[in-house]
Amino acid sequence: MNSEKPNNNKLPLTSKDIVEIRRILSNTYPSAESELEFENPFECLIATMLSAQCTDQRVNLITSQLFKEAKTPEDMIRWTETELQEKIKSCNYYKTKSKHILATCHLLVKDFDGQVPSDRISLMQLPGVGRKTANVVLSNAFGLPALAVDTHVFRVANRLGLVASKNPEETEFQLMDVIPEHEWSPAHHWLILHGRRVCHARNPRCHQCGLNHICPSSLEP
After folding, report:
1. HSE on the CB side for 169, CA within 13 Å?
2. Per-residue pLDDT tens for 98-126?
3. pLDDT of residue 1
4. How many Cα atoms within 13 Å fall on the side-chain side of residue 55?
């Protein structure tokens, strides 16, 4: 297939299509950034851990008070698990998250001098921190190129045909192949915002989407 031929029939994406998708997303969401509120790497880590299966808006309500009371791992480990549960109980899976957060804070104090590490391997040693959370922290807290894949990124990237994958890690690696490194972090936010605002899991708003002329999954003719 000629990579310069316009994708008028919504065939598998060409290299030109991918460039166009990146251009449209960057223009649609020019100021895309994390909607979690934090002031330092520690707050970014805790907010991201809380955000699993929970809206950013709910997390921000919780952390607006939480971070007034605990600004460091040393502050947080003064609480018992029950005490932390009470402070975050409006968050989904608050019992598991309380356990992981306190275990993480103890490990940060013990092995990292109370500082959040800035490398993926060390971050993933922390309880409750998987690859997605580590990538979010690397990108948002340290400004390092990383492409975190959450449910929105996974769904939108597969629908657009940027990837053809069955799991988040495979999606991450395939996206890294088609998106330049300097766009990894912004692309993460573009895809999240597009998934939240337009490309919903159910009833996607294809008629409002600036990508429906390219997207092979578009419900629009």
Report:
1. 3
2. 999 999 999 999 999 999 999 999 999 99
3. 34
4. 6
Q: pLDDT digits over 192-219, tens only?
A: 999 999 999 999 999 999 999 999 998 7
The DSSP call for residue 210 is: T
What is the per-residue pLDDT across 165-192, written as a single tens digit (0 to 9) for each?
999 999 999 999 999 999 999 999 999 9
Q: Taking the model in full, what pTM does it have?
A: 0.88
Q: Average pLDDT for residues 21-25, to the nearest whole number?
A: 97
Sketch out the chain's domains with CATH numbers. 15-31+146-208 (1.10.1670.10), 41-142 (1.10.340.30)
Cβ atoms < 10 Å from Cβ of 12:
10
Residues 6+ apart with CB under 8 A from 55: none
State both tokens at 56.
Answer: 């950013």
Q: What phi and psi, each to the nearest 5 degrees, are found at residue 15?
A: -60, -35
Name the residue with tokens 């990837």: 163
Q: Which residues contact residue 197 at a Cβ distance below 8 angstroms, ignoring those fewer than 6 apart?
A: none
Q: In 7-80, which ranges are continuous DSSP H helix?
A: 15-28, 41-50, 56-69, 73-76
- Pull the structure tokens for residue 216: 């092979």
Which residue numbers are catalytic? 132, 150
Q: Cβ distance 25 to 194 under 8 Å?
A: yes
SS3 of the chain: helix, strand, coil, percent, to 5: 55, 0, 45
Q: What tokens appear for 168 in the block?
A: 């988040």
